[in-house]
Amino acid sequence: MSRYKSMKDRLIANRRDFLKVTGTLGAGVVLGTPAAWAESGKDGKPATNIAEILEIPRTKSSIPGPYPGRLVEVYDEAAMPEGEPAADVVKDMFERGIKKLTGKSMKSSFKKLFSKRDIVGIKVNPVGAGLINTRLELVDAVIDWLTDNGMKKRNIIIWDRFGDMLADSGYTEERFPGVGIASLQKMDMAAFGEGASQSGWRNDDGTHRNEVDFDPDVFYYADVEAMQEETYRHQHVHNGKRSHFGKLVTQKLTKIINLPVFKNTGNGISMATKNLGYGVISNTGRLHQPLFFDVCTEVLAFPAVRDKLVLNVIDGLRGQYDGGPMPAADFTWEYNRLFFATDPIALDRACHDLMVAKRKEMGVQVNEHPMFTDYLHYAERLGLGIGDPAKIEHLKA
After folding, report:
1. Are 277 and 297 in contact (CB under 8 A)?
2. Which of 73, 197, 314, 357 is the one with CA 20 to 30 A from 100?
3. Around 393, how many Cα atoms within 13 Å sit in the side-chain half-sphere?
4. 108: CB partners within 8 A, 6+ apart
């Protein structure tokens, strides 16, 4: 039986494995401890369908894109006055970063990466509303760049996995008029709590109502069992050995701009590769312990991400050096930086080292086992980007 069908001209989509409900994790959502996930070893790695995916031919748009191994760091001490982004400063930082990355004007840079007819999905990270989410001012700068070069607002979609998280972080139609706001699934808040009814998310036949929003033909197979409890199915849509990609990405978007934030996950990071690796598929809770970091590599190898991810900008206006990936105010600081790359692997490799340095500076005990960066070297072997620090060009603007 084939584990993967009809990948031609398909994409990917889905999101986080943490659900913030009224300030806490939803009752009954069993996820474990992020630090424990990040510490899991790779011995006895479960089989996946990565070999089959690698047989699919690459395109001229495939990552690492036109600037493999290159990243640009932009710093401005005036970016976060009194803890809030200065929109004009953020826009200037964004333009400086794009120009330095491409060596071209904003107009020429646009033409290098997009056409006016593209349907562009801006993948944000809304976790930690108001504290450590992707800043709306950065998204404004991206939208201005696209529309200034002739793209219609209706061709731009801000998206994430969970719609409630988007709204909590300010990603609404009122805040971004004319721009699409989309999620891969919606949680039924009434389903949380002991004895709560599960009828809000289930069809009469027992399937998840959001199942129709995931592509039955595009999936990441991993030989890992999922929990069968209703709370797991509610959050993860599927509970077999397949993690399906959202139709938003497989069937609608033609280009992806990835806007993660600068934060940790245990001794690892939750930045460019994780924002998509765990953000574009369903049924991810089962993957954390046996495949945590490798998911960030293997999911990006699918054409739906590999061939459409044209730009990554890490929002480091505020960073979080411990307690991540969930928000932890005690460990945040004003970092006043943005990081740019077409190569998400090089970007994460460089930012991992910056995170380690910050954690040491703040007296956090750091485990520097190679497992926390092996997945990036693995990505380089798969041709997805540059994971060797010696090959990375780290520019500043």
Report:
1. yes
2. 357
3. 11
4. 102
Among 103, 182, 176, CA closest to 142: 176
* Across 240-269, average pLDDT: 98
Rounded to the nearest 5 percent, the helix, strand and coil shares of the chain are 35, 20, 45
- Report residue 183: phi and psi, to 5°: -130, 160
How far are the Cα atoms of 105, 148, 223, 274 from residue 98, in angstroms, in the given order? 8, 14, 40, 22
Closest residue by Cα to residue 98 from 305, 261, 311: 311
What percentage of the chain reaches a pLDDT higher than 90? 82
DSSP per-residue letters across 340-369: EES-HHHHHHHHHHHHHHHHHHTT------
- The secondary structure of residue 250, as a DSSP letter, is I
Q: Are 52 and 3 in contact (CB under 8 A)?
A: yes
Residues with Cβ within 8 Å of 22's Cβ and at least 6 positions away in sequence, in order, are none
Across 83-95, b (16+ Cβ under 10 Å) vs e yields: eebbeebbbbbbb
Letter for the amino acid at 25? L
Amino acid present at 165 = M
CB atoms within 10 A of CB 177: 8
For the chain, counts of helices (H) and of strands (E): 13, 14
E strands, 22-94, are 24-25, 70-75
Residue 62 and residue 325: Cα distance in Å, rounded? 28
If we measure between CA atoms, which residue out of 129, 140, 89, 145 comes closest to residue 336?
A: 89
pLDDT in tens, 165-203: 999 999 999 999 999 999 999 888 888 888 888 889 999
The dihedral over CA atoms of 24, 180, 276, 330, expressed in degrees to the nearest 10, equals -40
Rounded Cα distance between 229 and 355, Å, is 36
pLDDT, tens digit (0-9, with 9 covering 90-100), for 51-81: 999 999 999 999 999 999 999 999 999 999 9
Per DSSP, the residues of 207-223 read -BGGGGGEEEEEEEEBS
Per the DSSP assignment, residues forming a β-bridge with 332 are 320
Residue with tokens 């731009």: 156
Look at residue 26 and tell me whether its pLDDT is greater than 70: no
Q: Which residues contact 58 (CB under 8 A, 6 or more apart)?
A: 306, 307, 383
Q: What is the pLDDT of residue 41?
A: 40
